[in-house]
Amino acid sequence: MAIRLTPRLCRAGRSFLAWEQGDLHEASGVSKSTIGAFERRDESASLTTMNNRAVVEAFEAAGLEFIPENGGGAGIRFRDRKAPAGE
Question: 65 by DSSP, 3-state: which?
């Protein structure tokens, strides 16, 4: 399934990972200025196919999983559930 990244999902992914835009640049190869400009746009904005793929793959390699839009809207989460301390 192809994920169309939105500015909100991009910011959320970085937030989950505690990444700055520079960290995403390092992981994806997409320029920091492109990431910054994209994240400031409205939700109809899109990246080029190549940049979208690179950013999605960087998030997935870091352990995130995209949730398809299925009535509740697209989302993002950690791929592996971490057990709370003490379990």
Answer: strand
Per-residue model confidence as pLDDT tens digits over 4-44: 999 999 999 999 999 999 999 999 999 999 999 999 999 99
Tokens of 73: 């809207």
Q: Are 14 and 24 in contact (CB under 8 A)?
A: yes
Asked whether the CA dihedral 18, 65, 9, 82 is positive or negative, the reply is negative
**Where in the sequence is the domain holding 42, given as residue range(s)?**
7-78
Residue 86 lies in a domain: no
pTM above 0.70?
A: yes
**CATH code at position 13:** 1.10.260.40
Question: Is 37 within a domain?
Answer: yes
Q: Which amino acid is at 82?
A: K
